[in-house]
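re: ur question from earlier - yeah i can do the single chain one, its not a big deal. heres the input i used so u can compare w yours
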Amino acid sequence: MGLVRTAKVTGLVAAGVILGLATVGGSYALWNKLVPAGAGTVRSADFLVTLTGSNSSGTHDMVLADGTPATIALTSSAAPLGQLFPGVPVYAGVSVGNATAAGSAFTVLATLPDPAIITDAGPGTGISGYLSVQAATATDLAQCASVPSGDYQGGFPGVQIPKGTSAVICFRIQLAPQAPSTLQGQSASVSVPLFVEQIL
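and the output i got, formated as tokens:
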């Protein structure tokens, strides 16, 4: 959804990264709450999760109208990743919103069940082996770069999102300090799978 722009890089190793978020589904209406109801009309609630990327390209539903999972770009020409230098991280993020219309409590858990998929792109190969992606939570998309380094993890445990609220997941992308100069001019794409399920 939208175009992504390769980061401009200078220095010893010049490389580019495209970052995207691929939703991999979630559980739909695990009706695990018993709520008394009187006579009248019964209406089912929706399982609506929204995604807003750090590229400010708008808010998107996690599941498209045709039922397929959405894929959104977290970088764009208007909001590219910063310059990528060996050992110096760049940041992007996504705000995950729980916009369900359920009448009772409806808390979801957003997790990154699988590691980021890092793929060499363009001419040359090998840069993907020197890239790492870690995740952490923040209170705002603008704060991803200021999250303490120790909060970023390769195995993200997830974040609970009550009905009517949102949570920010930040991503730190880093080129290893020992990346060889032969990688200059290469680029890679990074896809981060997101899974959301109802837990309460």
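Confidence is low (pLDDT under 50) at residues 1-16, 26-36. not sure if urs matches, ping me
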